[in-house]
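User: For documentation purposes, I need each entry recorded in a consistent format: the amino acid sequence on its own, followed directly by the corresponding structure tokens. There are two entries in this batch. Please keep commentary to a minimum and don't merge the entries.

Assistant: Recorded as requested. Entry 1:
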Amino acid sequence: MTDKHQVRLWTLHPKYLDPQGLVALWREALLAKAVLLRETRGYRHHPQLVRFQAHAAPGSAINAYLAAIHDEAGARGYSFDRTKIAPRRNVAHIAVTDSQVACEWAHLMDKLQSRSPAVFESWQGAIQPELHPLFSLRRGPVEDWERMHHPPASTR
């Protein structure tokens, strides 16, 4: 299954995204927030929402996720609407596996290589990509909710 038209809530730090990816992530995370707050009927069973739904405070977790995207946008001089997210709160991290991160990294590098070669060049040498601040790393296989399976970036 390709995720060309599927929402991707990246576990990777948003700094790695090209402009199109960062804007798409903002929109997709706002949609995820609406789902978690039951403000929309669509998209409720998207597999990547499982980790937010399992969080002790799903609304706070998605707001923390959005806040980091907003911070990255601001650092780039973009003006994403801060009023769309609640005030920042400390929330528990969401654990993610090293294999999941490798899968996402390979997927992102594929996207960047074709869509934004200059951004791809700037990040292709990264050995251990940084995570979005909401996540913490643990060892393990690709997450059960993942629909894209790429070989680990280290085999590229």
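Entry 2:
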Amino acid sequence: MRLLLVLAAVGPGLIVMLADTDAGSVVTAAQSGAEWGYRLVLLQIVLIPVLYGIQEITVRLGILTGRGHGALIRLHFGRRWALLSGGTLFVASVGALITEFAGIAGAGELAGVPDLVSVPVAALALSFLCLGTRYRRAEMAGIVIGALELVFIPAAIIARPSAAGFASGLAHSIVLRRPYLQLVAANIGAVIMPWMVFYQQQAVIDKGMGRRELRAGKVDTALGSIVTQVVMIAILVATAATLGRARTPLDTIGEIAGALVPFLGRAQAHVLFGLGMLGAATVAAIVVSVGGAWGLSEVMGWEHSMNARVRDARRFYLLCVAALVGSAVAVAAAPNLVNLSVDVQVMNAGLLPIVLGFLLALERKALHPDARMHGVHKWLVWTVAAGVMGVGLYAAVSTVV
């Protein structure tokens, strides 16, 4: 019976974590491996429990209150604070969606498909998915597409990473240099993003999960946390084992895949990296557009369920489609995906104090005392969250000062 409950609840945590390894995260991990070898693998491992600890709170808030993140902020802290949170979400979502479509364009180029075809087709298909599919079908489609990211794992194996180099990277101390700190901030920002909090909290509601599925929802989140970081580690290892030797500068998806050719072979490099990027960017575009529209609609008090008819939640659906189409158009102004992706993740790290601050405050204010964190669990999560916020903010500021 417990297994059936877990299987029935799998979805919100897994899809949001697959989306977490989005186009920007893929490029950030690749850049980390290319520039610093295996030195940032330990950070990826440490971020697994951090990611779970943060997203597990959204599961409890969504299931036990029946309200989305933006709606709870508006209820407990007022409209102005809700607008601040919604504004943070909007900025993060726009930046993320631009990188997702740039990633789709890059994957298309590897297959010989021009940007003017791949990007509009993707935007149109995702818009139809948003408008014509109820939550459960959209969730299933996202998980199936996102599973393409798993091809990065065999890519890492084929790259023949050095066991000695891997072990040395795990033991390596922090480097107090701006390029290193920028990638630390980018990797933190690539793991914990504002739209993830908004999406998963509303997703458990649209999926119809109740108190009975609370534990299963936590298992779903833990599974997703491990999967997304294994994928990130695979990407980092693959590039550390190949690009880390050549110190090749990265500017586009094509250059990343092209630099892997001598080590993986042209066909394998293009197929593996192209499919992985396509899966990562597409599932993220679904989650980011829907999560952003959910969050803003909650703040404004509009109908926002994916199970609602278009005419009953037209402003929610309009936001979703507008975000997709607008970001697809903006890709033309993003010539350097690598720099853009790293910058977006650094921005996410700088926004963490707002996102995590509200999340922790709601955990104490919106939940019944029996459902809150207590004792060691509470102080551990608070300490880790404060550390992540501090490191992310410090590293983000240090890159621009």
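Summary note for entry 2:
The two ends are 55 Å apart (CA to CA).
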